[in-house]
Amino acid sequence: MLKIRNVEFNASLDEVLQRLQVELNKRGINLLSKVRPIKDHIMITCPYHKNGQESRPSAQIREKDGLFMCFTCRESHTLPDVITHCLNEDGWKWLLQNFSSVNIEERKVNISFDNNKPTQQSVEYVPESELDKYRFLHPYMKERKLTVPIIKKFDVGYDSQTDCLTFPVKDKKGGILFIARRSVNTKFFSYPYGAKKPLYGEYELLREIKNGTSVDAVYICESILDALVIWCWGKYAVALNGVGSAPQMEMLSNLPCRTLILATDNDEGGRKARNAIRKSVKNKLIMEIDYSSYNGLKDINDMTKEQFLKCEVRL
To answer: What backbone phi and psi angles, to 5 degrees, belong to 61?
Structure first.
């Protein structure tokens, strides 16, 4: 059953897409081509770029809840939004009219009056068995300077169906929150719709420290690949998967190390991230890579190991 906004429909995603295709064909709109289901998703041509005319489908819709994501143009939407875009009418209303709902689950908000703290919600983790599907090596891993020990430590994999590297993103206790993907053909990273990003690599860092490793300094990167390369080169790093959020700033403050070395990208977004960290994290010695020694390179992955190890850091 397809469930969207806590409404269960008496149809599968496959049936909804079939009906949508029929409706589009009636209107003479050649915008959406569905292909066979793959695991728990259905691959389709993306209706948001090239007028839906792709030689190879680049988008997927998740079967259980209709979340849409394109690996090429980066569009991410709910199924009703996709239908609205395709038909130029209210997609939610179209779903309700064509597929009667089975059940509407009431949302209940629990309010705790104990020290004004909200009731803790349970987290739905990705099962470890899911990673078995992706435990393959791909030449692109070597191209991005990843070594086999670090690939194994972080359980980096390859999804042949989406042609992406896979990166399990864990909380600090090791629970897999979601799987990030990076296309081996483009620079596009993708995350599940609405995913709240922790510090990538925090769990592995804390495990090193727990096992007796002395870690005084940790590099802070934007991307997962930059952080992994630093691990490959014998240093420790975490990734923001962006330019940083308020929860991530708190996580950085709580890292059990004395020094943070800012290694975000050598561009406007990277400078924004460095400024935010300096403003928000007060209990650490904060340094940053001296970008004049980069010789114009954009990020860590543009450097050689020798350049990185010789690269000066400054306050």
So the answer is: -125, 130
Per-10-residue mean pLDDT of the chain, 315 residues long, equals 78 87 84 78 89 85 89 87 89 83 42 48 81 93 94 94 91 92 82 83 95 94 95 96 88 94 89 91 91 75 88 86
Q: What whole-number distance in Å separates Cα of residue 22 and Cα of residue 109?
A: 40
Whether the Cβ atoms of residue 228 and residue 154 lie closer than 8 Å to each other: yes
246's tokens: 């308020």
Could you tell me if 248 and 205 are in contact, meaning their C-beta atoms sit under 8 angstroms apart? no
How far, in whole angstroms, is CA 99 from its chain's centroid?
Answer: 31
Domains located in the chain, CATH noted: 2-104 (3.90.580), 128-314 (3.40.1360.10)
Q: Are 249 and 292 in contact (CB under 8 A)?
A: no
